[in-house]
Specification:
The strands form three sheets. The protein has a seven-stranded parallel β-sheet with strand order 1-11-8-7-5-3-2. Strands 4-6 form a two-stranded antiparallel ribbon. The chain has a two-stranded antiparallel sheet with strand order 9-10. With about 280 residues, the protein is of the alpha/beta class. About 40% of the residues lie in helices and about 15% in strands. Strand 2, helix 3 and strand 3 form a beta-alpha-beta unit. The protein binds fe (iii) ion (2 copies) and zinc ion. Zinc ion binds next to helix 6.
Length: about 280
């Protein structure tokens, strides 16, 4: 097994170069960032010098692949056509910008069907992805496993498999497994991580699994709440995360913390802890 590829969600507010420097300062070897303001709005133009310095830092420290995150406001399966249109346009713009940092991952929440039903939601998500994805693009787009809060689509492996099935250029698609979300959705990764991975493999195919979000959950299995907790402080517990970072089937995948922290120190501590589990297993 190789070294753990681990990091956390970082802010772009001081620019891309500063974000990469933050990653280095906490010993992160991957990270996530919002491709634009999480509440939507226009994306800032990429500053060429900032971008070049960012790419240099990634290269110098062997950081990546990165797992960019689309804003939560995108909803490819809204009942409002203007919301759907915004999500499609914004995703296309995000992916165009990501061509400037080729070879990374772009994760998004499939959407909320807002009482149109999961079937209609899945149809609209497929239609949106078929419009947005560009054959030959250098970024793999990841569907995130969802907790099943409200009318979220992607609450089961079956729903994610149906989306992938409905997309023409499915070679551009993968899945990001969020530990809090799958537990909230009812998959028992606490007692049977390997059983859940078996099911993922049977329904979706493990080759589609390209990244993980590491979050403990404030709520018990199957609660559909989506409230993240610090690693080891929630319903999943430390041993679940030890099992995740040492599981050979998850080796080599970028793992991103989205735990509630007030500063970089908290993530640095979690990164060091999870690395220690992984290193102990490898030696
Ligand atoms: Fe997410
Ligand atoms: Fe997540
Ligand atoms: Zn979440």
């Amino acid at each position: 097994m190789g070294e753990l590829i681990i990091g956390c969600h970082l802010s772009t507010s001081n620019g891309y170069a500063a974000m990469a420097a933050d990653a280095v300062s906490i010993n992160a070897t991957t990270f996530a960032f919002f491709t634009r303001n999480p509440r939507g709005g226009n994306a800032r133009e990429l500053d060429e010098k900032d971008l070049a310095s960012f790419l240099d830092t990634l290269e110098e420290h062997g950081i990546g692949p990165l797992v960019a995150h689309a804003p939560y406001t995108y909803n490819l399966c809204s009942a409002k056509p203007e919301t759907v249109e915004f999500a499609r346009r914004a995703m296309r713009e995000d992916l165009e910008r990501m061509e400037r940092m080729p070879g990374h991952l772009y994760n998004f929440h499939p959407g909320a069907h807002v009482k149109q039903g999961a079937d209609e939601g899945i149809r609209l998500i497929c239609e949106g992805l078929n419009e947005v994805l560009e054959p030959g693009q250098a970024t793999t787009v990841l569907l995130e496993t969802m907790a099943g809060k409200g009318t979220e689509v992607g609450r089961s492996f079956e729903e994610l498999a149906r989306i992938i099935d409905g997309v023409a250029h499915d070679e551009l698609l993968g899945v990001c497994l969020d530990t809090c979300h799958v537990a909230d959705a009812g998959y028992d990764i606490v007692h049977d991580l390997d059983g859940v991975l078996d099911e993922f493999d049977r329904v979706i195919g493990l080759d589609r699994l390209r990244a993980l979000h590491l979050n403990d959950s404030k709520n018990p299995l199957g609660s559909h709440k989506d409230r993240h907790e610090k690693i080891g402080a929630g319903a999943l517990g430390l041993e679940t995360f030890r099992a995740v970072v040492t599981n050979p089937r998850l080796s080599g995948l970028p793992m991103v913390l989205e735990t509630p922290q007030t500063g970089l120190d908290g993530w640095a501590t979690e990164i060091a802890l999870l690395r220690s589990f992984s290193d102990a297993h490898r030696s």
